[in-house]
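explain this:
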Amino acid sequence: MTTVDRWLMVALLILGLTLMGWRVWGDSSRSAQVVVTVNGETILNLELSPNQSGRYLIPLERGQAVLEVDDGAVRLQDMEGLCPRRICSHTGWIRKQGESILCVPNKLLIRILGAEGESVDALSR
């Protein structure tokens, strides 16, 4: 291995670490969007900011669900009586782009998109 090869490897390593750092920590000023759909129809779309908190009522066929927003994360409060297994409320807090809460019996989907409607563009297995 020559000296030029070593310098090339160091330069590629620095470039890779810089790009990875930019992807993880870069441009955090853009806020994520929370989109709530019931039966395929969007009923709530709000910006998820770090200092935001509140509760939103979501009308369902079986009653009303309560969406809780706090410190840049969202969750469903306990759905006792509305959802048989309550998997949706046991999902807990979600805060990252691409995460979602799904309640199949109520046809409810809560998902987090990136800023201005960005979404995950590819998945790999």
About this structure: The chain has a mean pLDDT of 88. The first helix runs from residue 3 to 25. The radius of gyration is 20 Å. The chain is about 20% helix and 35% strand.
